[in-house]
Design brief:
Layout (H helix, E strand, L loop, with lengths): L5 H12 L26 E7 L2 E10 L9 E5 L10 H9 L3 E5 L17 H14 L5 E6 L1 H12 L4 E7 L7 H4 L6 H9 L3 H12 L9 H12 L3 H17 L13 E6 L13 H4 L5 H11 L4 E5 L6 H4 L1 H13 L8
Helix pairs in contact: 2-13, 3-4, 6-9
């Protein structure tokens, strides 16, 4: 039998690395742009130039499956999430007549992970705005979860005329951790922590912080998605981009600008959430006070002019994942209260 060529061996190895044949590991590994992990809808790419380099931004653009209402909703993922994590919400929104656009931000999931990039919420907002312009979306409802809530807030502040309504789902950044006394760390420290990320560490963190100690089998898919990128052939680049994203989240608070939001806003807050960036390095007396989402949600709703607060008493950081039917019903109800025309 002839021996396979070197290119064939390399191709086979990459195919294995980007699939469930993870070899010595118990979990799948994926490519640096999440190759091998399937999304629920076709993935498209937006090519653009940013910071003197050519980049590609992956996104889902899902047409209405119900009677079209002529409106678009944009779903912005969190740091430990991807566009695919919105799958149940996408189905519900499309079924209710919405066009749904769900991007993966630069540095995340199926988008490019540059070796050098100055991460800022303003830059990610500009990237998102350029993507929507390429899709002829002038105005939209913007929904942001977790880190995506910070991005959605910046987007609404930066492009108020392009935002029909703002929806924040357990956003992080409802408190300024650095101002409260959480020590600053440099990107190398964030990177060192990201390099230790594994399936087990992701699951343990989410179990404790996101889901209040209650695990459901449905959550495992999203842990596998994240862990597979860290364990894959581009794991170091993935970790570096995640480190830069953490630095951005910690050093670019949006909470002080809530009073400047000039669009209708709704907050969905799972009351069992305890997410707080940098808690591991906070002084002991401060740790217990961080991430108090019942109090933080009410404070944010009071700070944002005219905001509506929806509380889920028994849910945590990801209500759209924990209880998709309840979340989707609440989301559709919130969106139905704001007309398509520009709010006064």
């Amino acid at each position: 039998m002839p021996k396979p060529s070197t290119p064939a061996i390399v191709a086979a190895a990459l195919a294995c690395a980007w699939s469930a044949c993870a070899g010595a590991t118990d979990h799948p590994v994926y490519g640096p742009r999440l190759q091998g992990f399937d999304y629920p809808h076709p993935v498209q790419t937006f090519a653009f130039d940013s910071q003197r380099q050519a980049l590609q931004m992956a996104y889902l653009d899902v047409a209405p499956t119900g009677a079209p209402n002529g409106r678009t909703v944009v779903l912005l993922h969190g740091k430990n999430f991807c566009a695919a994590t919105w799958d149940a919400a996408i189905a519900a929104l499309a079924g209710a007549g919405w066009r749904v656009v769900a991007p993966d931000q630069v540095g995340f999931c199926k988008s490019d992970k540059p070796a050098h990039y100055q991460f800022s919420f303003a830059q990610l907002a500009a990237n998102t705005h350029a993507l929507l312009a390429s899709l002829d979306v002038e105005r939209s409802v913007v929904v942001g979860h977790s880190m995506g809530g910070m991005l959605a807030t910046r987007y609404a502040l930066q492009y108020p005329d392009a935002v029909e309504q703002l929806v924040l789902v357990n956003p992080i950044g409802l408190e300024d951790w650095k101002a409260l006394g959480v020590p600053w760390r440099d990107a190398a420290d964030w990177y060192a922590g990201e390099l230790r990320t594994s399936f087990d560490s992701i699951r343990a963190y989410q179990l404790d912080v996101y889901y209040g100690g209650q695990w459901k089998p449905a959550y495992t898919r999203w842990v596998t998605m994240l862990a597979g990128m860290y364990a894959g052939p581009g794991g170091e680049r993935v970790a570096w981009n995640q480190a830069l994203a953490s630095d951005m989240v910690f050093n670019q608070p949006v909470v002080h600008e809530f009073g400047d939001i000039a669009v209708p806003a709704t907050l969905f807050i799972g009351q069992k959430d305890r997410t707080a960036i940098g808690r591991d390095r906070a002084p002991e007396g401060l740790k217990a006070r961080l991430g108090d989402y019942p109090a933080l949600g009410r404070r944010a709703a009071a700070a944002i002019p005219g905001a509506t607060l929806v509380e889920f008493d028994d849910l945590g950081h990801s209500p759209q994942v924990e209880a998709p039917e309840r979340f989707n019903a609440a989301l559709l109800q919130a969106l139905s209260t704001t007309p398509a025309g520009k709010a006064d």
